[in-house]
Amino acid sequence: MTKAVIYGKVARADRSALSNMNFNYKKVCQEVLSSLPLKSRVIIEKRFALGLAKRNQTLQEIGDFMGITRERVRQIESDGLNKLRHSSAPASLKAVFTYFERFLEEQSGLKRETVLLAKLSNETDRPIVSFLLRLSPKLYRIEQNSKFYAVWFQEKDVYNHATNLLNDLLKKITQQKVPLAREMIYCFFNKENKVFIDNIIEASRAIEISPLDQIGLAIWPEIKPKGARDTAYLMLKKTGQPLHFRDIARQANNLPNYFLPKKKTLPQTVHNELIRNPQFILVGRGVYGLKEWGYQTGTVREVIKAILVKSKEPLTRPDILQQVLRQRMVQPNTIFLNLNNKKHFQKDDQGRYSLKEI
Question: 183-233, pLDDT tens digit by residue?
């Protein structure tokens, strides 16, 4: 059994201890950097946005500021980091390392970098934590590549196992051709730790989670909507009932930032897409449902005709009313007025309605 399967099974008491950890990261960082020569310390502070630096500066920017070449900046940075990694860490830094290691172990040994940093620190301390992570002798980082966003992991076999599992997951999703519920993913890989599976999905660049919490390929429109039509479909699927086009636009604009289109979704844009696409059915005044839910196209009169054709025998007014109201959000009088149209419907002596014979 690989460690990727074992990781994540930390005792409840350990989880509580980890969640209550509180470090003064700034103080720890200052203590660590104090062992470096001034030039090396300044370069590392600028490169990692530590201290007064507000953003990570490039080698060229630092070189221009210090009057040296970018290559020389790189050498000084590399030498400084190597010195910090191989020198004896102060007790405060060792405690931080232990916390990082245990936290990552709790996360099954692998975590997407942006998420890990958010879990370990607040926004102010995030650059410092990113820097301290790079000094850990037992944690490893992989830059963003074709498969994963930047990730941190424990031991190379964990990353290798994650890569293999991701490949298997991609094959399975591609074969299914539809988004999958998270529980179904767990069933496919029932020997794997669920936390480990979640973290692979989170770190993968090819797999995304839809607003409906379904998992599929990032290129699929039902996973990551690309326009008003895709968004309208997802909002209707999410609610499971017909919605007014204005409500669809409002819900679309309330999606998490990740799913929001570049421009605000306008009600009229949604309405235009609903009108022109046959997968959407007008069931009330400005209210649309999905054809896949069993709604049929046409006016109230056409709906009544379809009901009578399907019935193959006359129906009473209450029966017709009940069936039409399943298809359309209209007042009963609207249905009764259509039934009274003698050009299309006829009533027998028992008060039952059928199609007018031509």
Answer: 999 999 999 999 999 999 999 999 999 877 889 998 888 888 888 898 899
The reply to whether 3-138 and 228-293 are identical in fold is yes
CATH 3.30.70.1150 is held by the domain 3-138? no
pLDDT top residue among 252 and 166: 166
The lowest-confidence range among 31-40, 113-122, 349-358 is 349-358
CA proximity to 355, closest of 294, 318, 302: 302
Which pLDDT score, from 0 to 100, does residue 73 have?
Answer: 96
Task: Indicate the pLDDT class of residue 260, thresholds 50, 70 and 90.
Answer: low
Tokens of 216: 């599929």
Domain-wise residue ranges, the chain: 3-138, 156-217, 228-293, 300-355
